[in-house]
Amino acid sequence: MTEIEQIEKVILDEKNKTFLILFHINPDGDAIGGALALKFLLERHFNKTVFVYSNNAVPEKYKFLPASESINHDKNLPKSDVTIVLESANIARTGYSAEDLDTKFLINIDHHQTNDFYADINWVESSRAAVSEMLYLLYKGLGKNIDKDAAVGLYVGILTDTGRFQYSNMKPEIYDILKELVNIGVDINFVYRNVYGRKAKTYISFIKSLLDDMEFYCDGKLAISYIDEKTIDEFNISVDDMDGAADYMRDIENVEVSVFIKPNEPGVYKFSLRSKGKIELDKLASSFSGGGHKFAAGFELETDNILDAKNIVLPKVIEVVK
Ligand SMILES: [Mn+2]
Fold this sequence. Notes:
Order of helices and strands: HEHEEEEHHHHHEEHHHEEHEEH
Low-confidence stretches: none
Bound molecules: manganese (II) ion
Radius of gyration: 20 Å
């Protein structure tokens, strides 16, 4: 039996009544959109009781998603028959710990290269563009119709994880899925205006600081910049504002690799690495215990301050880029 068939069996089993859905901290459109589409599948087609728990509030730009207000932020997780963890390399990635879980069965669904295979069923396929693509396949496998609410979630997941259908994870068959979702009733323009068309003034302050601190190395092939705690506080910059900073720098002419650094928690700095497609970054990220895809990867580093973090990593990146 394939992993997806095993998951279908767990869902079809009437003994499994309560489901908990988790995803990674600082959730993106794929995590939130995918989780809500999965919630609708379980609730509306199988009469399950479903909880979605997140360590972070839903970003403003995803609040238009149907049932986004049902996502719970409590520290204490409810007891469940089955827990499904979306796009998280390990339990810790969810911001909860294994001890927080009170569940009989654990399912791990992910499309990232790096995954610890920590569950009873591990459906991990790095060739998938988004976890939302995998959840689309789960609907199909179970022979269930995707309703409009679920279609919007899946669409947002694919839209954001493919960088508006531009990344190398785009495949011809994704357009078939998109066509189906739009035919179901996804309002493309409405989604666009919510997800991309509402940049805050604080975003402009962020971009200004990002560009002020940007440096180029390797004949302009490497762009690196950061944002420090002080600037974040001074201009009230949100996590949302910083989203896509590494992509922004990668898109500069001649740049092959971009690196963006931001504080994650006191003394921990998060690196986001992007490549235009010639230079692979996943090995570099795993050498710092991170992960991701070939051309989009990341990791965290513990140091005293952000400039130390930059100085530790910069020579290693230069080695890969030069
Ligand atoms: Mn994803």
